[in-house]
């Protein structure tokens, strides 16, 4: 993995309203537990983990793809379920089992050539805070930890696993002035 970005190498943070920041997004990054899921972890008697995903969230990711916004996942857990969901949604940038999410972000920025100010990140807990500080647009589900909510640019009305990802995707699509076009196409107009 790439080295952690230093203060000198990090691009200056984006400025502006949440909508202005979202209008510049070229790469949207998501945590999984508490963002794509409600944070619950279910284990079978054999120790296999199960997760529940929201189909509205999945379609939101597809909408970002339609407008040319790349998507990524950076998560602290390692899960075959997450890898399968990422494949299903065509999320090509998948980082699992990550302790320091800023290191994964630095690698992702090098790989894509996208500036941190053109990245969005949606997370819900303290392990997400450092990477959120580097992203140009930081978002959280409604049920994120209060310290996260205090520090982001945008908060969904929905909880993690219950449409928060879709809300942020819609907000980005709107900020990039593509929402009406995509809606018209979905209605066959």
What report would you give on this structure?
With 189 residues, the protein is an alpha/beta fold. The chain has a single domain, classed as HAD superfamily/HAD-like (Rossmann fold). It is 37% helix and 14% strand. The chain is built from eight helices and eight strands; from the N terminus they run αβββαβαβαβαβαβαα. The strands form two sheets. It has a six-stranded parallel beta sheet, sandwiched between helices. Helix 5 links the parallel strand 6 and strand 7. Helix 2 runs parallel beside helix 7. The chain is globular, with a radius of gyration of 16 Å. The termini are far apart. The N terminus is likely disordered.
Quick description:
The chain has 189 residues and is of the alpha/beta class. Helix content is 37%, strand content 14%.
